[in-house]
Each structure stands twice: as C-alpha cells, then as structure tokens.
Amino acid sequence: MFWSIGQFPELDHLDAVERTAVLNRIPWSYYPRVIFQSIRWGLLCLVLGSFFSGAVIFPISSWLGEAGFFASSALAIFVTVNSYLQELKNVRRVIRTEVLKAFEGQRPPFCFSCGYDIRALPGDICPECGQHIVPCESPTPSSV
Q1: 30-53 helix and 62-102 helix, angle to the nearest 10 degrees
Q2: 119: buried, middle or exposed (CB in 10 Å: 19+, 13-18, 0-12)?
C-alpha cells in the first residue's frame, strides 16, 4: 500500500474546501523530501554495513561476504522503514500546525489529543478522552 500525506486522520475531519486549503499550505516538495530522506539513510546504512562487514571491500570468504551483505541489507531496510515512519511523524506535526493556523481563533474540527470529531459537540470537553477543547491559537513548537 502506498501511503500519502492526504491520508492523515486529522484531514478526515475537514470538509473538502478546508482539506484543500490545509494541504495547499504544505509545500509540494515536502513529501518527495520525506521519501528521499528515508532512502538516503537506508543507502548510507547499506554502504557502511557492507564496508564494516567486509562484504564489499575485504571479503574474507564468500560465505562471510554474502552473510555480511544480507545482514547489512536487512539493516538498511529496517533503517529506511524507521526513517520513513519518523519523517511521517514530522509531516503529521506540520499538518497539525497548518490545521491550527487555518482554525486560529475558532474551535478545531477534532480533538488534538485523541482525534475525535468534535464539530457537533455541544460542550467544551471531548467525550472520548476528557480533554478540554479551546479555540485554536497560534501554534508553538511544544503545542503540536
């Protein structure tokens, strides 16, 4: 399954116009940069793992060379996937910041703690997690 920025749960609570407005505030190059960063870390891990295992430069034996290559390949895949997931956390932070900016001074469309849709909620407390709902303010790095 290919995953895209438009599939974040925060965006499910926005109508089409709001969703488009939030996504338009994120630079088009952000998602390719996420993929590039992840692949870069994976390739670096593959090269360094192959070098230090002796699989590429100083093969001690054919078995050790193959085992070292497969071990460094597995490590590179692990690092690539984890790097991708970490970059997606950064994208999610950016999307939440943009939602905060888009709804500044208004009640947010969802609870930032649990993601519960609070548009039709009459009170100021989320029924899902008990978080007090306040109008969006300018985002600060610690609040997102």
Answers
A1: 160
A2: exposed
Could you give the CA distance from residue 80 to residue 3 in angstroms, rounded to a whole number?
Answer: 15
Side chain identity, residue 144: V
Query: For residue 107, how many C-alpha atoms fall within 13 Å in the half-sphere facing its CB?
Result: 15
Q: Using CA atoms of 36, 38, 40, 46 in order, give the dihedral in degrees to the nearest 10.
A: -150
Sole residue written with tokens 């488009």 = 20
User: What global pTM score does this model have?
Assistant: 0.65
State how far the Cα of 63 lies from the Cα of 35, in Å rounded to an integer: 33
Q: Does residue 133 contact residue 118 with C-beta atoms inside 8 Å?
A: yes
Domain ranges of the chain: 5-102
pLDDT per position as a tens digit, 116-127: 888 888 888 888
* Inter-residue contact 117 to 109 (CB < 8 Å): yes
